[in-house]
Amino acid sequence: MHRPHRVAVLALDGLLPFELGIPHRIFDRPVGPDGRRLYEVVTCSVRPPGPVRTDADFSITVEQGPEALAPADTVVIPASYELGPVYTEGRLTDELAAAFARIRPGTRLVSICTGSYVLAAAGYLDGRPATTHWSSAEHFQRLFPSVRVDPDVLFVDDGEVLTSAGVAAGIDLCLHIVRRDHGAAVANDVARRTVVPPHRDGGQAQYIERPVPEVLLASTTGARAWALSRLHQPIQLRDMAEQESMSVRTFTRRFREEAGVSPGQWLTRQRVELARRLLESSDLSIDRIAQEAGFGTAQSMRQHLQAALGVPPTVYRRTFRAGAGVRG
What we know:
Largest sheet: 6 strands, mixed
Strand order of the largest sheet: 2-1-5-6-10-9
Distance between the termini: 11 Å
Helix content: 40-55%
Number of helices: 14
Structural class: alpha/beta
Shape: globular
Mean pLDDT: 88
């Protein structure tokens, strides 16, 4: 019998309403081929049902207490600006400790922004790689020296413990989880409905201090659309630049300003995503997928997927087909 994957979102005093809403927005949307929801999302508090303060000029009423953590398959900790001894001393309050004691071993744990402080104080990040908002990274590392903090990424997936940087990076991480659980097609559908990019690499820099570029009279959007329609073909930088009637130098600069990466990096990401979709949804051979995705050879695709996903194409296909759609 199908049972949706249960996601419990822990609402703490001082929470940021935007970040509290991210798990609901992302996990409430995915549905399976039969139309049934793939996730069930509940919000709970460390106290009995009642009001929880936000960092805005209003409170919210949470209708479930910490008992909702016990049956959860995934627990999400959004950011809070009132973490008390968690933030100042690196230790859980008695309420938080009692709440975390209800979480079953093996439950997937996820933090958004400074929610990572709670996971670290509970000991879940000891010896693990993790991230948090860039402005808190130095303090976080001093407070939790055993955590391998990476302040320069959007999110870190370390198996059953995942952490993200601030605000929008929480969207990226939740979409990544949907993609990991059910594949790129389901995650892309959720992204379209949410009107956000379907995929930003976890390793992408979360903050670069530089001037905001001037409004551009020309755009590289047309060149990207042109490239996406012919990923199976060789695409040269000069070909993309010609689509916008720009010099290669100007096009490269404009592209990086608009997309945040070089044209070459962007092309590789699009080809990896296409290869992922074909591995998940088709029975095409590895050689044929390499051709369709524009890698040319299976060996080239194998190297790029290994770098991006950590596994070769055959292992990715086997793992996905064994696990997609059957996670509790």
